[in-house]
Amino acid sequence: MLDITASWRHLKASFARQLTTGHRLDGLRLSRSLYTKIGLGYCWAITIGMVGSLVGLVGADYYQGQGIEQLFDAQEQAKLLDELQFASSEMKFQGLLLEVKVGQGQQEKTQHLLTFEQTKDKAIVRAKAVIEFVGTNPAWVATNPDQFVALIEAHSEAITLYHNHLAQFLAEIEPSLTLGEVSVLQRQLASIQRGVHLKQLETLSQEIEQLRRHATEQAVSSGDRMEIIQGYEKFVIIMSLLASSGFAAWIAWRTTRQIAAPIADAATLAQQVASKSDYSLRLPVTQDDEVGRLAEALNYLIERIDLRSRQLKISAKNARNKANTLQRALTELESTQAQLIQSEKMSSLGQLVAGIAHEINNPTSFIYGNISHAREYVSDLLGLLSAYRHRYPDDRELNDLADDLDYDFVVDDVQKMIDSMENGAQRISEIVRSLRTFSRLDETEVKSVDLHEGIDSTLTILNTRFRMFPNVHPLKLVKDYGQLPLVECHNTQINQVVMNLIVNAIDALEDAVGNGKWKQFRTEQLERTGDEIEPCLTIRTRDRGDGWIVIEMTDNALGIPEAAQARLFDPFFTTKAIGRGTGLGLSICYKIITETHHGQLEYQTELEHGTTFRILLPVALTCHIHPKSDISD
Fold first, then answer.
1. What is the C-alpha to C-alpha distance for residues 273 and 73, in angstroms, rounded to an integer?
2. Residue 474 gets which letter from DSSP?
3. CA pseudo-torsion sign 609, 610, 616, 619
């Protein structure tokens, strides 16, 4: 049935070529009288009938010979695949026998390896024979030739891998083995024999077996197709007669149509061009008379309109592109200018902070360094006074003076005062150290740093923001630090990112506390569970173990509005009130993390439940790879 369909397509193509020839003769026909055109039409109809019948007879003989060739190819294909499957099965059988040969002598093992090698070579030869057969471009193959060759080559490669794997294992076995070693090696060999190479070989063999069965079915069905082809001749002759009759009717219809149809086509085309503005439409020029010249003039007019329209579209497109380019350049210029200003501000701030920290550190060092000496001196003086009182317990003048000074209170309070001074000096030292850590804005090289130290320094600097939080709802800070390795990064830039994210979280929590929804949600939660919700900022760090570390900052504010999420990292976009934000913070943070440190800055937010910003950084910046997103963790 497939051959009949193909033959019908061949016949239609033949008719189409003849009809095209008829179109090319239109100019000749239209220069003749109507009687001449009708006579030529009947001549063409008779000629087509004769040619169609002749084509049917020749086509039947051709397809019959093609069917015989297909039968021979199908039989040869099935035979070669049978031989390949047999050789492959023989090679696998010899491979399975290797398990028995492990405990035998070296000579027997060598002999069996030689047999195993020969069966492998035999299978390879059979595979090459199949490939050579496909390379001859047979009339009929079981599947696509390229897929066929690829399958046979993969099968040959699987045979070679299976053989080499087993042969290499046996070659490494020592000649003399104990029974226990033989048993262990046999189990290992059995595991290798049934391993991935054998499974791959079995899978490919099953696919080849399907092709073999298909080739056998092709050989069986070739005989049936031969009978179908024999009826093809009668079918073509009948179709040729029917086509001749139809062509004669078509000639009469075309003769009538050639008189009035071109004018109607021109009117229809003009209406379509005017209503749809489709300037690709053209009127076929089929006559060399006034109607033909009208069609040429109409086509020329449409071409001119189309040309002017395309020129206008190109000009408009160029203008839009220039406007977009200027807009992008302006946006980039504003962003760059703002970032430069921000960088200059941060640099100036760093220099100022570093200078202040240095000036504070010097007198603080004097104070802190002398406290221990002052403690010793006071202790010595108190000891001396105690000795005097012990030596002269009845000295009335000394006792009166001690009572006036409240000696016992002074002795107890002076130690507390020195301890308080020492604690204050230590606190000043910690603040100075945090200021120094944060103000290293001149360090541009990459260093391996402890990120926890930078986070703690940032929190120290922002301590006033925590203390200034409304007393009605004090801000709770939770630090959940994991074990992090030293991370290669630009330390000051990471500190800048951490500070920006913490400030944003504090701002969001301040806005939430003053929002009516927060109060309502807090009241409902208290009534439902008895747990009081307080504003909370949680900082978590962890090592993912794949060369990446994670820093998370989570607040339980009201979340980010959905309308703002798509533009969250755009320059100059902010949801804060005028004067509280520039819209550059998150944009700069995103560039620092993604471009400078080749990491990721992600966020998760849920309305009325809070937001989590997640920073992913490579441990080794110099040999980073693209990270897997951590957003699902």
1. 57
2. P
3. negative
